[in-house]
Request: fold
Amino acid sequence: MKAIVTVPICPMFAAPSVESSLVDEVLYGMVVDILEQPAPGWYRVRTHYRYEGFVSREALLAGDEAAALWEARPRKVIRNKSFCDVLSEPRVRGRILITLPRGAVLSALADPANGWQLVGLADGRRGFVPDSIPAALHTAPLSADENTLRQALVDAAMLYRGTHYRWGGKSPMGIDCSGLVSMAYMLCGILIYRDAEIREGFPIRRIPIDAMKPGDLLFFPGHVAMYLGQGRYCHSTAKAGVNGFCVNSLNPSDENYREDLHRSLTQVGTYF
Reply:
């Protein structure tokens, strides 16, 4: 059975308990497959990007029919701001129905008008968001042109500047290294493996380190970053004094050079 995520950020745990490790976050409007109910109030689910874990049943609207109708509608994704209020009417004084993070999915019910987008929520309510905040929900690569797509990946990753580090996080509330790069790819219509490794069956393949280009992924032991070009890369790190999104360099002459990461770079992966 399928279900729609109906909370802004749905924690996914390693076991059916809030005391277990956070392994991922599923965002509003994403559709998951319910695999089993291992304990009262809990489901084991699989996301559309094939990651599995345990979530509270209270965070989901379960039902194949509801999920199919939701996926059949024109949808948009919150992209251009870290968060977005869905308002009861098309004016800034409207009542806040829900506040959604970047990556959340909404139903687009009409063409934008007068600076506002009419949207549908998973529970059937309607609301309004500024039409400059949502963007097209890409379910395939947003461009066939390699340079355009590479730049789009870099731009999407850089949207998370200022976000602090959260193990298992995938939103502007907190993001980890693989959450950052997987969300950047997802916003551009590409689903990659959620963890910091190249996994067979996903569209990232290993290439020589000296062949890296912007948008490619740099892999270190237990860590991943996105290459920006000119020796620079962005990543989310728990390193003391940084604790979140940052840009570092592979060039020893740069002030933001990280020798420890440069020395431990194991492989480079590309979609292209």
Observations:
- The CA atoms of residues 23 and 71 lie 25 Å apart.
- The mean pLDDT is 98.
